[in-house]
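Exam review. A common question shows you a sequence with its structure tokens and asks you to describe the fold in words. Practice with the pair below. Do the first one on your own.
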Amino acid sequence: MSGSQTEGATGRQTPSDATILLREGDPPNAYSFYVLGLLCCVGALNFLDRQIITILLVPIKEELQVSDTAMGFVTGAAFAISYMLAVLPLAYLAERVQRRKLIACCISAWSLMTVFSGMVTSYAQMVVCRAGVAAGEAGADAPSHSMLSDFFPARWRARASAVLSLGHSLGIFLGLAVGGYLAATAGWRVAYIAVGAFGIVVALLVWTIREPRRGGRDPGMAHANPLPMVASLRVLWRIKSYRYAVIATAFQSIAGYSWIGWMPTLLIRIHHLDIATVGLWMGLAAGLGVAAGVLLSGVVVDGRVVREPRWYSWIPGGGSLVSIVFSIVVATAVDASLAIFAFIPFSIIRATWGPPTHALCQNLVGSHMRATSAAVLGLSSTFFGLGIGPIFVGVMNDLFNQRYGIDSIRYSLLIATIGFLLSAIFYFISSRYVRDDLARSRA
């Protein structure tokens, strides 16, 4: 049967294999929602420890006496390179061991490295600690998505992914608001130590989760033993809708992480706000905006894909296009109020890519490679987003500084915004193959 709808004997349209997949499975139970809530907390901790450096960037730069390029490297590339090296081996483990234990161990590791970040005495030590945080965080997201696919059926997965991403937005909010407050009142070192110590508590709770049976929520799909890593990657690359969604995610993340990483610095340099004020407003604008965006897209896409699976790609593609408009307003705003309030719809719309993309990538494959599927998507987002975005803006800032002064950051962020346009193009290309690829996943 093809991926499109077919005519039955009575002349009526019958559902395609793609839409049948999205209607199967028993509804989730109370324990599924408990696990979802706990993994949401893991996601919050993940992004809290990852993003807190953005609000601490200015005091760290001043104390360590380094350039914008150097801070762009430690914010982005140092994290992304370490993440890239760790994420696929950890996904390989996640297909073979109990995922709850792997996640708990990774939380403990990155939390300790966050604590050590508050104790560094040199730039080199900060780079090492940042890389250590990345290596630990590489083992959280992919196993979490894989585990949730065994707690929630296909037609619930965009909403489950939205709640998991809600934790990410909560982490961004806490990283900016709490990090900014602690930095202003107790110093940036205390901010690092405080948030790192909290992670050990979360790790202990995750250890208690009951490991679900793999593939238990997909009665209509074939499930196999885990493949070798290279074989898994080859299978994923041959799925065209997946391939183009991963490329789209890379460009979306380059632009998105550029803005998340440097927006606080723009407000401090251009609009002369203090660090505590920037932390509060950025936490509200970015954190709550992202929360609204992921919940909205998760609910909308789960409601629409039952009839038309291409919404998995249409929603993030459209969101990337609209993000361009608001990013231009933010970059060119003449006062802080306009910049902050324009950043709110920017954050909402930009965040709509996550739940549809993650749900699609989980539904395209069987349980034997879902951690790998999520890991490759996370690698695309983190390596290209964090690895290129922040350091690109830092380099552009230093290059433009002599000619444009403090306004150089405006031009750097406008150039980075091109990533949203490229992202939209590849999402719409991906949409052409979604129906057939979902139908083939049932074979």
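Now try the second one, then compare your answer with the model answer below.
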Amino acid sequence: MFTKSLLSGVAGLSLLALASATAQAATWVNLGVQSVEFSTDRDVFHIGWSAGRFESLKFKVMGNQVEIADVIVFYGNGTKEHLNVKEHLQPGEITAAYDLKGDHRLIKRVEVLYHTEGSGAFGKAKVQILGSRFDAPAPAPTPSPSAGWEHLGDRNVGFISDHDSVQVGPDKGKFRAIKMDVSRHNIFVYNLRVKFMNGDVQDLPVNGLIQAGSSTGYLDLPGNLRTIDRIDVVYKTQGLHLKQAQVAVYGKH
């Protein structure tokens, strides 16, 4: 019996340690503070894209008692979500975390319906919104080219359909293939075209999603070694981010 109790105690401590580590891993940031009227009051907390992406929200009360009746979260993509926040909170209390649907959400604004319900002698309450921010890992570095690949240029990729050209010219020599490496974020490629110095044009078979940290791979150019005038690409950064994706274009002699 003693052994079983001891093992149970160790397991319990391990779970507590794991929960503590998980809690410490979350980065909770202040998303705003508003004073709360004694009558029914609806306030708007403006967040914006620059604040980052969030997983969940908490609500902290200061100064007086508050009843929270409704919370609506408006996301960066135009959708909204009602959080089931219906709480009576004392000064100094913080709600449990309310998870947001989906992952890594950009929040445009949060609307809260509430009122101060404590004695007027203590004045108006204040409510603070705290957000659990998703801290993305550092962007992946641009992959190094393999032996025999010459770097032809880098481009940042816009968030809407973007047309870029990489000028090459005869000074770079002749090439038998090209490739395009992607970093920071995923991109969607609509068209990749090579124009040669003799006026020929070749559309390469690249159409669709390319993930960050990956490459188009070896794209063979028709004929013998070719002199490239320019490389045209139509693409966009996939999703909503604080920074654009980046591509690096290489040619193989």
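Model answer, second protein: Residues 17 and 23 are 10 Å apart (CA to CA). Confidence is low (pLDDT under 50) at residues 1-24. Full marks require stating both points clearly.
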